[in-house]
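Inputs:
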Amino acid sequence: MLVAGTPRRTISLADDGWSVIVIDQRRLPHAFTTVRLTSVADAAAAIADMTVRGAPLIGATAAYGLALATREDPSDEALDRAHATLLATRPTAVNLRWALDDVRARLRPLSPSARAPAAYARAAAICDEDVEACRAIGEHGRPLVRKLRPGAGPVNVLTHCNAGWLATVDWGTALAPVYAAHAAGVPVHVWVDETRPRNQGASLTAWELGAAGIPHTLIVDNAGGHLMQHGLVDLVIVGSDRTTARGDVCNKIGTYLKALAAQANGVPFYAAVPSSSIDWTIDDGVREIPIEERDAREVTHVAGRDEEGRVRVVQIAPGATAARNWGFDVTPAPLVTAIVTERGVCAATAAGLRGLFSEAA
Amino acid sequence: MLVAGTPRRTISLADDGWSVIVIDQRRLPHAFTTVRLTSVADAAAAIADMTVRGAPLIGATAAYGLALATREDPSDEALDRAHATLLATRPTAVNLRWALDDVRARLRPLSPSARAPAAYARAAAICDEDVEACRAIGEHGRPLVRKLRPGAGPVNVLTHCNAGWLATVDWGTALAPVYAAHAAGVPVHVWVDETRPRNQGASLTAWELGAAGIPHTLIVDNAGGHLMQHGLVDLVIVGSDRTTARGDVCNKIGTYLKALAAQANGVPFYAAVPSSSIDWTIDDGVREIPIEERDAREVTHVAGRDEEGRVRVVQIAPGATAARNWGFDVTPAPLVTAIVTERGVCAATAAGLRGLFSEAA
């Protein structure tokens, strides 16, 4: 996508040919800056502290993390250690394990001297494959972005969190069909859930839709049910950090509440999912997916820009208030109208997913 | 309730015997201060800018607003003007109209000189009646605060926004049964929705539960579905700004999403409603209740205390971001397990409410 007129990916090799440049997503929307990763520790920290986030981008960063590790020490022991370090960063998104297992399995048979070049090549390929998968999700999802409610005006899409190009290497998952529809001349408007506690809707989705010139309106996470009751949402589309073999969708906390409202009001609810986000080993998302719990401070404190333009953290709760902070929830498959993948659109069922990915299921 | 050991109501007459003291709820939890209202304009401003909020407290403040108006000018014209000014402050809570109509109807037949004393007396009586209604809601609702899920530990109650004593003259509506259960020795723990955009959960409910010594945990509004899926909520209890004759419940935006999650997970969902919050003239809440829309800045900006203890407003979205800000949503009666009133607990149906309030329905 374009940032100030320049095409960018969220992750890329530096001009030195080995270090890795990522956008520092913690500083958006107030500043657009990049961070240079030069070691597996850097890559692990970037994932853990959410410099990078979004399931596909986490996978791509982890792949480059193994490349950085192998460059320093191509031994089996170092490879396993780097794999473990990166895997421990965040528990919920399955792309992390998928990318790490994929890269390690390809390096294992190689001689030590061949490993670093192969790791870089595979990390680059994972990025290119992600871009292609997201582009294809956009094409397959584009026909779903259509007016389903009476009244004039654009197609109203509601999305939660950020599953745009910032969550992937490029194009995005949930937002790819929106970008594709917009590019095809479909008038579209996006309701952007702010997505507490980290406000990825307000800070990332609003920012990238603004940069792309797509009309959008920020709302609190509480508002979606009211909008759907009043016919102001044509469809909901979200990403997924892990989708089970039967189509349960684990995504940013609060997604489930929007799915319930969509079902209650006859609004289609879509999940846009590259196959790298599908965990073929499990069925029951509520019971089987580990849900990350993060620092309570993300709930009790909010970061933003003050009137002088300085970014500050302010506390919204009384000093002694306890808080809990789960990062994701699971939307059971029966609430999901369809899943949009890089191979097409399918029912959120085991048979639906198997029909598109017979080799994996 | 006690504030730093001193019993307080949210609204009371000043020592001068005529001006009105209210807690400035905009400054909680960071400072406990009061504001003195000396005119109908003061009272209207206090309601409109949310110095006071909560349907019952809005009604009580409006009643005192008419008393302040009548003290200055007891004519019919002034009374009607004050009624109109106060009624225009906020559209959704029906207690406002109820209190204004009640006081005006009592003053109309009186001679001008008798009006101010009568207005003050009636405003004081409305406050006392609200305290008594909330106390009775606490008693009737207390048996509902019980363990319904397996596992050790306290009864887990989830509430949205603030329907505690700060929303009323004393005791609260939704929190009255919690206070009553706690006083009766029932171990209770409250999940407090932060309640964006104005964070009444974080700033008011967490503050008053802390002051009362009731264990509680702050969560983002997105978290309730996840908690209910995992058996961590025994019951949901909320207030209501307007309840229709058939039991549709209009409450702070986001309440509806929690009601959907409660139904999907077999968790009882109660609304605690003094009869002054029931609008007997309408049935269909989604179609008939006017939903207040407030300043978009409440969504794009957040207030809190910085590290030096100063309250600041920070902007969380990109500068040009459009936002919409509806204050309430409607939970249709079929999602409401029961309604707790000052006369007892009833089904959220026309027959249920009529059974308790045959004279009004």
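Chain A has twelve helices and 18 strands. Flag for discussion at group meeting.
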